[in-house]
Design goal:
By secondary structure, the protein is of the alpha/beta class. It has 12 helices and 14 strands. The chain has helices at 39-45, 47-54, 58-79, 106-116, 173-176, 182-188, 212-215, 222-231, 247-255, 267-270, 272-276, 279-303; strands spanning 2-9, 23-28, 80-90, 93-97, 100-104, 119-128, 153-161, 192-193, 237-240, 258-263, 310-311, 318-319, 330-338, 341-348. The strands form 3 sheets. The protein has a 10-stranded mixed β-sheet with strand order 8-6-7-3-2-9-10-1-14-13. Strands 4-5 form a two-stranded antiparallel ribbon.
Length: 356
């Protein structure tokens, strides 16, 4: 199996390098409006943002920032196939503007934007991001009533383009081999992820980074990897219009899906090659870990007297449902740099001693 991963330097408000109806899944985390670290970016995209902030008009600044994201959502509507899924990781913002403190609900504004474009919202996910200060309050300390709740979660908003689900040919190998285990389904398809942690990136740039290190704000690898496994099949293409440090591309490589990324700052691409070097080992480790955890699940169930009914076709283990029998993990065997990106050759997972 071969996958192709393209990365373009450019403005994601214009994804002309991506063809109409050519993407099955979007997984991305945009810059969050009303978070100060992105003020300069939004002001560059639209000077009205800077003017609104300077005049103390938070609501106007909030709307002007989202107006720029709206142009990206227009492009996603164009490039996604009917029935394709968009997963948008976003956090709300708290901020004092002109002496008034409030929350700016980015997730609600994005929800409205996608619905107005004909997307159907699907159940979303909250994930805990405990990277804030140990102080669990803001405002007046321990005195009521003027303290504020600390935001320690982010949203993964999930949308489907149109009301119809994607269709596949009966018993399509690329779909059945991309299945997930029963217990993974139960853990992943819950609306609260407490086992994912925020992470800080250590980035290496040549010369001055011009604040890019602070603006990377990469989400944990586990988030795009899960979403890709949940909402795509082998042969699908995953798009990240806010590519950043390339975490979505890395997850797509490890999950053996094609990918496309668009990034405004060319300097981010400089540090990506070092991350790519780890993909073969990472993909192998992920596949073996998933298989090992499943075998532990089966063993625990056998001890409790529950014996899974079916046997996996490619691995020496039992599975709970018929749909799991054809699961087949892939690992990245080799990576080649090509025009605009990378070509990855994938092979069936090489399992460690102890069985296939």
């Amino acid at each position: 199996m071969e996958t192709i991963h393209r990365v373009f330097v450019g403005d994601s408000r214009d994804l002309s390098s991506v063809a109409d109806d050519s993407v099955e899944l979007v997984v991305t985390s945009p810059p969050y409006p009303m978070i100060e670290m992105w003020d300069d970016l939004f002001s560059t995209l639209d000077p009205a943002v800077g003017r609104a902030l300077e005049s103390g008009d938070g609501r106007e600044a909030f709307e002007a920032m989202h107006a720029q994201l709206d142009r990206v959502w227009d492009e996603l509507e164009r490039v996604l196939v009917d029935g394709g899924i968009a997963c948008i990781n976003v956090g709300d913002a708290t901020r004092s503007i002109d002496g008034s403190f409030r929350v700016y609900q980015n997730h609600a504004r994005i929800l409205e934007a996608f619905e107005s474009r004909g997307f159907d919202p699907l159940p979303d996910v909250l994930w805990r991001k405990p990277t804030n200060s140990a102080a669990k309050f803001m405002g007046s300390g321990t005195l009521p009533p003027n303290a504020y709740v600390t935001l320690e979660h982010e949203y993964v908003l999930v949308f489907r383009k149109g009301s119809d689900r994607r269709e596949f040919e009966p018993r399509a190998d690329r779909r059945y081999e991309a299945a997930y285990f029963w217990e993974e389904r139960n853990r992943w398809f819950t609306d609260l992820w407490t086992d994912v942690r925020g992470e800080l990136q250590t980035l290496e740039f040549d010369g001055e980074d011009d604040g890019l290190r602070e603006r990377s704000a990469a989400y944990p690898f586990e988030i795009p990897y899960r979403l890709i496994c949940m909402y795509s099949a082998y042969g699908d293409t995953v798009l990240d219009p806010f590519w950043g440090t390339g975490t979505t591309t890395l997850a797509a490589m490890c999950a053996a899906r094609d990918s496309v990324g668009s990034e405004l700052e060319e300097a981010f691409l400089e540090c990506f090659d070092d991350r790519v070097d780890d993909v073969p080992e990472t993909s192998r480790s992920i596949g073996r870990s998933r298989l090992a955890r499943h075998r532990e699940f089966v063993a625990e169930n056998r001890e409790s007297g529950t014996v899974p009914e079916y046997e996996a076709e490619y691995y020496d283990t039992s599975v709970v449902t018929k749909m799991e029998r054809s699961i087949r993990f892939r690992e990245a065997a080799s990576i080649e740099t090509v025009a605009d990106g990378y070509r990855v050759e994938h092979e069936p997972l090489s399992v460690s001693e102890g069985g296939g």
